[in-house]
Fold these 2 entries.
Entry 1:
Amino acid sequence: MLGRVRRALADVPRDERPQDQPVARDYRRTHGDRTHAERVGLLAENLADYRADVHRCGPAELPALIARLLAERGARSVVVPAGLPPEWLAEADVERLPDAAENTARDLDAVDSVVTGCAVAIAETGTIVLDAGPDQGRRRITLVPDHHICVVRARDHVVDSVVQGLERLDPAHPLTWISGPSATSDIELDRVEGVHGPRTLEVIIVEDAAEG
Amino acid sequence: MSRTYLGMPGSHPAASRAPFPEAAAASTQDAQLRGNLRHATHTIRAKRAKAVAELDDWGALRAAGAAIKDRTLRHLDHYLERLEESVTRAGGTVHWAVDAAEANRIVTRLVQDTGEREVVKVKSMATQEIGLNEALAEAGISAYETDLAELIVQLGDDLPSHILVPAIHRNRGEIRDIFRERMAAWGRPAPDGLGDEPRELAEAARLHLREKFLSAKVGISGANFMVADTGTLVVVESEGNGRMCLTLPETLISVVGIEKIVPTWQDLEVFLQLLPRSSTAERMNPYTSTWTGTADGDGPRDFHLVLLDNGRTDTLADRVGRQALRCIRCSACLNVCPVYERAGGHAYGSAYPGPIGAILTPQLRGVGGSLEASLPYASSLCGACYEVCPVAIDIPEVLIHLRERVVEGGEVTLRGSKAVIKPAKGHAAERAAMRAARWALDHPGALRGGQRLAARTRRFHPKRLPGPGRAWTDTRELPEVPAESFRDWWARTRGERGEK
Ligand code: SF4
């Protein structure tokens, strides 16, 4: 096949290198100049626009908030990534299933919720990105259970744009970009939230106390 | 069950080879199809315009997208070798398929090697193009489509009609009937008393497919992008069925056209902005998955990448036509096309409907067949497709070029070898049209002027389509006029750039 490709490109001069074909990157790195607070505000707004439930709190309130969200949902069990800070679930009255290679999809299907951190959150598009890091776990744990609580640490994770987000991410890790719960418009273009992924996505944005 | 069957015998995409005007004549008489299509295309069109308007650097992103694809295509051999290396390094296995038959053989053998007889599939135009499901069925392997619309199409024993919303020709009542009647034969039956609310129908699909996902051992996908440098594949989707197919099975087989390469990780910053806004008119689609080879204990243990030619190198050999390979399958061109709106997707006789199908199918298959020869005429040359295309494919230019090939014949590359095709017979009218078109091409200033005029004075456009199209259009609504044509924007901003 490479022979066919080369014959097809007979008109390309032999000494032309890929970089001789110019690519002007004069698009914007970000679409706006924002303060930290504005950036986090935009993230919350865009997440909500795509039907994620957004909550905001300080670090001290986080365990109680997670416990409350799980209780309101009636969740009795939760999958826990290996590196999730233990205090996050300290107040939750639920059975814990540690993320492990042995857990089958059926095991996960029997669990109510999953709680994770994230790698990056992109304000302009309302996107959270998971990179399978220690506080996020295997890809399947945020896919099979029907309820996902994702904790975003505002200071560490929030960027403005897709350009900035990609720069921070390592392609060697499997990535999942999530912008609102799954959706379909396949039936007469009526948007229905929640087909196969978690039908409820709750994002908790945690601000450091110092940020007020 | 009422069926909107559009004169397309058989379920294999390649089975539908009626010339475009005849197939289109059938669908233009179908009031429901036309109503559904008009509603759908107009809705998406308006939303897309809004999503695009949010980015004031859209023109620059579009130019960068086109330039990245051109760089890739002009050096495709280099990037293919690089991709093979990086995928292999990351633990994947790369296979090369020169045509549909070879790709189908490879995938069938890979599935057989696992000992499985069922696979789950995420919507992929490449596998539809090669008729993979039919090939697997012949080998006794059931392929389950898991995209909601593809499920509707598959259960209804039907053909997709739109890239993005393949079941756009079905309304909710029909979908309920299809689910009630057919789900049981494929797996978990539809719930008792299933109604026709989209939410209920989506829930029925969730339950039906969950059974399949949880037990699936083999997944088959395509990919939106492949990064040559890193060996990363990218799948952009909405429903989560893609994530299911990409992460739950033990073996993953991805069949991807060779033109889906981008050189670097950074290049994704352009396409992950262009694609969702052009396609579903969202800032970002609900789910995007990227993976590089295999990951320890997370996702499939075996990953196979089947690189598909199937006419792509023939297309690449054509200096005018090769720009069609920039396409990122967003479907924006379908939604603005007055001909597509009238004719429906099935009339294009391949996996690729609308303006992109009109230039891609005749190039992938050659213009020897009557369907392929008629497709370049399936356009009023209004230029709306070019204006919305996020990678600036000049579809009218390629259409004119292909019309010339149909009418005049000439040298082409067919299945990797040079061939000379004869002029089409009985195209006297087209020949006259061609003379005018050639004049325009020989006078680039006139073409540019004509396009600018078209963008600014759309309301003066003729109400009837020229050429063979005339027979099957009575009236048509004209697409919204873009505020500034791409060519104008290009001229303006290139000028500005010099001053920076
Ligand atoms: S030709 Fe352009 S507008 Fe049409 S589907 Fe391809 S990328 Fe989208």
Note: The CA atoms of residues 42 and 148 of chain B lie 22 Å apart.
Entry 2:
Amino acid sequence: MERIELVGHFGPYGGRFVPEALIGALDELEAAHNSASKDPEFQRELNHLHKSYTGRPSIITEANRFAEHAGNARILLKREDLNHTGSHKINNVLGQALLTKRMGKKRIIAETGAGQHGVASATAAALLGLECVVYMGEEDTKRQSLNVARMKLLGATVIPVTTGSRTLKDAINEAMRDWVTNVSTTHYLLGTVAGPHPFPTMVRDFHRIIGIEARQQVLEMTGRLPDAVLACVGGGSNAIGIFHPFIDDSGVRLIGLEAGGAGVESGKHAATIVGGTPGVLHGTRSYLLQDSDGQTIESHSISAGLDYPGVGPEHAYLHDIGRAEYRAITDDQAMHAFSLLSQSEGIIPAIETAHALAGALQVGNELGSGAILLINLSGRGDKDVQTAAQYFGIPL
Amino acid sequence: MSKESLAQVFARAKSEKRAVLIGYVPAGFPTLEGSKELIRALIAGGVDIVEVGFAYSDPVMDGAIIQEAAEVALRNKTGAKEVLEVVSSVSVPSLVMSYWNPIERYGVKEFTEALASAGGVGVITPDLTIEESGDWIDETERNDLHRVYVVAPSTDDSRLAKVANKCSGFVYAASLMGVTGARNSLADSASELVARLRKVTDLPIAVGLGVSTAEQAADVAKFADGVIVGSAFIKLVLQAPNITQSCKNVTLLARELSDGVRQGQVG
Ligand SMILES: Cc1ncc(COP(=O)(O)O)c(C=O)c1O
């Protein structure tokens, strides 16, 4: 099927469903992003930060011992975990923080689930001299207390959100309320490819560097394109970042792994595309978890960063046109892959990322030893040591 | 006796040299029957038009007070059926105030038809943009329902004209940049926004967000055609020990506000 790219829409998905109060700011942001992406000076500044601050390009590690559990397919890990601050999130944050300065704003607000986006935002704010306020569900401040401390050490203000389910979805609501109130001075530095236009497009553009580098690296290493590219999907930013430069390579399968929690059939999950329906949440039309009245259903996942009842609109579209496929990985499957990578490769992944690794075990076994799989290793697991220790019964 | 139309209510108020008073209550708060009683109490105190709120799980335009009321309504399992039931119980013109997803989920065609047959006169949609309103415009026209969009002080003149052009019944002008909630003073941004709107539309203009006292209502009535009050009523209900006391207090406040909207316009 042909891909339609109306501005701000992905087929029937995307768009803007926001209070009129925010339209001016979204227009301003769209214009700033468009002009910056054509401005060599802006690109030079961003590239300089990628190289001298984040540590790009991130390397590719071949996981030979892990591959033995994945049907002996070749397993290539794109090491976004080695970026400064420990995940892919920094790519988008540096881009948006530079745009904030370009727009003459001095304050950023952000939502965070796992705390990775909050930490990345606090980091960029410190680097560029911006005030930073991070909204985080109270539930998540407990699950990810180490990251709360990191944000504070970096000089950010962390506001625990006590409304609704007290997780990422409610942190986004609070950030939107702050933005409606302070929009003239404040940029909302959204952490994933969801939200109203231009966020899904802009955040994707800032993460495309993952896929652009990886495509080149895989070609150099193996002389061909991979058979499949895999990534975990919360809001979908690390996945779209690595998928997007492969979209026109029709022979490359794009596979997104959603959080299946206790199993999609149990109702306790965060597998928005696999187990949800189309609707509108947080300013965009996409798949979401909702009841028959259109009320958002709380999501469940062992991974705070995937515990979100929505997903970026471009993923909804790639799913509907059949260009990408989405599977659910349960908490237990993810934790199995988590421990397997730790013990076969000496790399402790983020629990979010472990969902992609569990997908690699499945797909590797399906495709067998001739296959090449590229996996976005979106983040490192330091922040998850407490959760993982608890899961595996390791006393702390 | 058939209900007045929105236009008739605004015209009558104008002939009485006053602004219209519009009151907001979420359906299902504090209970389904309680919300009907509260609406009757509002009307007894002089409210001309009622906004029936459709509680939503992610109300990004609402402050703490309305969020709390919405949580109560959701715990009471208030859905479209209950919202429509409350609408059909209202003796003055009533509109539904709803975030977009519950309407889309119910079906745009189905919702507008059901609302029209329940006797509702329109819908206020705080998070629906005109760009996403294709079916909505068709179906609200087909069912003779008013479409009310909410504009803000940050809305520029050319966009104000475009949005007002898609409104019918009245235009909802947010008094300030922010979310719903009672505030002590009224921002200058309200009168400035209304003045800019006057240049682009002949529709009546109602001002909401933050109005809680008779004095503020009188201030707004000097330059606007309608005054919208929500959080101030909800706050009284949250503070009262029972529904009887809630209704009494709500009627008293409505009476004060209704005096307020009569003091503002000088001629
Ligand atoms: C390491 C890591 N991977 C993935 C995600 C999920 O986000 P997204 O789907 O936007 O990549 C998060 C979110 O916090 C994360 O920290």
Note: The longest strand of chain A covers residues 253-261.
